[in-house]
Amino acid sequence: MQNFTIHHRDVRIPVSRGGSGQPLVLCPGLNSTQADLHELAELLRRDYDVVTFDLRGHGLASPAEDYSFDALLGDLTAVMLELGRRDPPAAPVLVGYSLGADLAVHFASEHRDTVASLVLIDGANPVPEPLITEALLPEFRLMWEDMAAQQISEKDASRQVLLTAQEILDLNIEIDVIRSGILDRYRRIALPTTMIMSTSMAGAGNEGPAERLNRIWCAGVERLLRDQPHIVTSWIDADHALPFTHAREIAQLIRNTPGAAGRAGLSDGR
Length: 270
Prior knowledge:
Layout: E1 2-8, E2 11-19, E3 22-27, H1 38-44, E4 48-53, H2 69-86, E5 93-97, H3 99-110, E6 117-121, H4 137-152, H5 165-180, H6 182-186, E7 193-198, H7 208-227, E8 232-236, H8 242-245, H9 247-255
Parallel strand pairs: 3-4, 3-5, 5-6, 6-7, 7-8
Antiparallel strand pairs: 1-2, 2-4
C-alpha cells in the first residue's frame, strides 16, 4: 500500500493506493469516506491497482469553506491529474458512488482521453423531477442534522464528515439541479459505461416519501437508457447503502464490465 497526500488549493486530500493490474479510481460520495468503502476497495485490489481518497471535509481530508459541486469536482480532478502524472500511459477505470458517480460523469465528459471506462454506483441519475421538494425539506433537514451530529462525533477520524446539516442540504439541492441536465454530459462521453443501481434507493416501502423517491429513481434510469441505450445496467435488491452491504456483488459486477481488465468470472472467495 502507498499513502500520499495531494495538496489542492486549500485542501489536503489523502490518497491510498494498492493492488495490481489496471488502475482503478474509487470516488466516494457525500457523507462517505474511503474507510467506509474499504471492503469494496480490498475486493477490487485482487484484480486492480486501486486508488481511493477522501473528498474535502470527509474522513482524513482537511475541511474547506466551499462544499459546492464544483469544489468537490476539483478534488476528483486533482486526484486524476496526479495519477496521470505518475502513470501517464495508463488510463484508469473510474468508479463513483452516489455523488461520486455524478463527479465521475462530469470529469469524464471534460477529460475523455484520461478514463478507460466508467462504473456508476447509485448516482448520476437523470431523475425527471427533483428528489427534494418543499414538502420533504423539514424531514430531510432533521435527518441530516442527526447525521451531521453523529458523523462529527465519530471517534474514528477516517470516518468523520465535517459538513454541517445546512451544507449537506445545500449540496443535495444543487445535485438535484445538476442531475436535471446531466444527460448532456452523458452525450459527450464515448466510453464503456456501467450503472449499478439499487432497487429501493430510499428504502423498502410502498407508501409515503420512500415510494415516491424509489419511483423517481427508477424513472431516471429508464430515461437515461432511452437516451443512451449502450449503457450496461445492473440492479441490486438493496437501498442506497449497497456498497457497504453488497460489496462482493458489486466487485464482481465491476470485473465483468465491458472493457474491464480484471480477471472476470473469478469468485471473491478464492
